[in-house]
């Protein structure tokens, strides 16, 4: 049996609803005010990095070191132990580093995971460097999943990239989307966490995608409109933000 609300609780609920409505009206009024002439394509995407033992300069906005296994927003310098979010869009990219010397730069790169530019370039799927070897040797050209998300509580867009050891958990999460009745990442309420693994190469952290629930059809439609306005981020990752740390795993 549902709990009967007291008059005080009802009044408090009405006050909170009115406050939220006013806040939404203000946000709609001042959105982009004072920055109308700024081209969003010139701004860095809000990439969130998983802090690894090899991560350099992992400090938050206050100058404190961000713990390994936490997440750091490279634009706002905010740090999170986990991210409660909705994934708005998913893309992929590929890169081939100089073998044994990733500091030398990329030999070949594909922004969309389909067409490469460089050595050898061309159709990524047909390229032998993108395939696993006969003895299960990893491909020279590695794939990265690029996730555009929206933090549910903070109301902020962000981008996070999954490669290396995080590639497979991300792939499993993407596969689960295809088996959902709505077949869209917008349907899921997700928490992104990390866990530690150790190999002969050392210690590193791996992404975990945990589905906590589903959005209603009405919420999905609202999120779809938001995804449309932010989706350019997932396909425009500057070269300097490409994560070389996973290439060392």
Description of the molecule:
The protein is 20% helix and 31% strand. Strands 1, 2, 3, 4, 5, 6, 7, 8, 9, 10 and 11 form an eleven-stranded mixed sheet that branches. The protein contains three helices and eleven strands. The model has no long low-confidence stretch (mean pLDDT 82). The protein has helices at residues 7-30, 167-178, 217-230; strands at residues 47-50, 71-73, 79-80, 83-97, 106-110, 115-118, 122-123, 141-151, 156-162, 188-199, 202-214. By secondary structure, the chain is α+β, with helices and mostly antiparallel strands. The chain has a domain at 42-91 and 146-248.
Topology order in helix (H) and strand (E) letters: HEEEEEEEEEHEEH
Indicate the proportion of strand residues: 25-35%
Largest sheet: 11 strands, mixed
**Roughly how much helix do the residues carry, as a percent range?**
10-25%
User: Looking at the structure, what is the overall shape?
Assistant: globular
> What's the tally of helices?
3
Task: Please give the alpha-carbon distance between the first and last residues.
Answer: 54 Å
Average pLDDT works out at: 82
Query: Which regions contain 5 or more consecutive residues with pLDDT less than 50?
Result: none
Task: Please count the beta strands (DSSP E, at least 2 residues each).
Answer: 11
Classification by helices and strands:
alpha+beta
- What would you report as the Rg, rounded to the nearest angstrom? 21 Å
